[in-house]
Design brief:
Elements (H helix, E strand, L loop, with lengths): L6 E3 L5 E3 L4 E7 L5 E7 L4 H12 L7 E6 L5 E3 L6 H8 L5 E5 L12 H16 L7 H16 L8 H4 L13 H14 L8 H13 L7 E6 L5 E6 L3 E6 L6 E4 L3 E7 L2 E6 L5 E5 L3 H21 L8 H8 L25 H9 L5
Helix pairs in contact: 3-7, 4-6, 4-7
Family: Belongs to the protein-tyrosine phosphatase family. Non-receptor class subfamily.
EC number: 3.1.3.48
Enzyme class: hydrolase
């Protein structure tokens, strides 16, 4: 049987792409690992996303997407309806694509699959460590202790401060100050004891529920100027579109339900409000930015208006109760007990291997 896309199978069992109609796409997952897929040059972003979801055994694909760094080294979400290669060739700084959460939720208990919550946990931890979600010293120590329990579990050898100092526990700006890191690590070592006995899903859930309350959760923003040519930051979040002024003026919030439409023209981005005839206009860095902002925030506008009324809220106590029902367990190198929800989660080899691999680093 001939192989697709003109691929030739050698004795080494490695495929060599012999057709110019192929694209080998390298994608970084949220656990830091890379996967590669061979696609057609005409394959859309959606086809690539579905390949990643299949690899991860992920069914709740709606919340996720793929992004790249543009030539200005800014994160940009891929247009899933268009060919991936054309977007990377035209706008991308490098050919690497990244998998991540594009639509955040008001409560992670709304997510049905345990693997979905695990991917959310990885995303939120990444957001915290990269400084996208700012936190106080106390918050960072609390989150780090939960991350240690979630990723390393109950082991006496992890109580060593020297061991914890080798792991990235705190936001990147802190790394420059060794004194702050040392003091915070000492506190993590003590606070970590509080969470002994928690399973990985339970510790991950506590971590995410803390981050949900923090400013910056689920936000994406760009630099802009308002109608008075004042420098502002405009962004989208779970509630709508916000405007933050750099001069100390109180921020503005336009709720999703109050927004009728969003448009762009050249470098200008405009909000059309439901109860006002006038539009609120902002000038972005360039035409590509205004076009990107309009596309992404229209997608979020549609998503949040539809899903905020549909997603069920699960009571936290009943959710923890479901997590405590042991469906299966594995002994990895740190003897972690994996517990899964009986009704809406299914253990699968791909999912299990993903959870084992992530224990190697935080």
């Amino acid at each position: 049987m001939p192989l697709p896309f003109g691929l030739k199978l050698k004795r080494t069992r490695r495929y060599t792409v012999s057709s110019k109609s192929c694209l080998v796409t390298r994608i970084q997952l949220l656990n830091g690992e890379y996967v590669e897929f061979t696609l057609s040059v005409e394959s859309t972003g959606q086809e690539c996303l579905e390949a990643v979801a299949q690899r991860l055994e992920l069914r709740e694909i709606t919340y996720f997407s793929l992004w790249y760094c543009n030539k200005q080294n800014q994160q940009r979400w891929i247009d899933l309806e268009k060919p991936l290669k054309k977007q990377l060739d035209k706008y991308g700084l490098e050919p690497t694509v990244y998998f991540g959460v594009v639509f955040y939720v008001s409560s992670v208990t709304q997510l049905q699959q345990e693997i979905t919550r695990y991917q959310f946990y990885l995303q939120l931890k990444k957001d915290v460590l990269e400084g996208k979600i700012p936190c106080s010293v106390e918050q960072a120590i609390h989150l780090a202790s939960l991350a240690v329990q979630a990723d390393l579990g109950d082991f006496n050898r992890y109580e060593s401060q020297e061991f914890l100092q080798k792991i990235v526990l705190f936001p990147m700006p802190w790394i420059q100050d060794e004194r702050v890191v040392e003091e915070a690590t000492q506190k993590v070592t003590m606070l970590y004891q509080k969470y002994r006995g928690l399973s990985a899903p339970e510790a991950e859930l506590l971590y995410m529920q803390e981050v949900e309350k923090m400013e910056g959760y689920g936000e994406e923003s760009v630099q802009a100027k308002d109608a008075q040519s004042t420098d502002v930051i405009i962004g989208s979040c779970l509630d709508g579109i916000f405007v933050k002024h750099k001069n100390g003026k109180a921020p503005l919030m336009f709720q999703w339900n109050d927004i009728n439409n969003m448009t762009h023209n050249k470098s200008f981005f405009a909000l059309e409000l439901a109860n006002k005839e006038d539009t609120i206009q902002f000038q972005t860095e360039d035409m590509e930015t205004s076009k990107y902002v309009c596309r992404m925030w229209l997608a979020r506008h549609k998503f949040y208006k539809i899903n905020n009324s549909r997603l069920p809220e699960v009571h936290s106590l009943s959710f923890f109760s479901s997590l405590s029902k042991p469906l299966s367990s594995l002994c990895s190198d740190r003897k972690l007990l994996i517990t899964l929800q009986r009704n809406d989660m299914t253990a699968c080899p791909g999912h299990i291997s993903q959870r084992i691999k992530k224990k190697k680093k935080i």
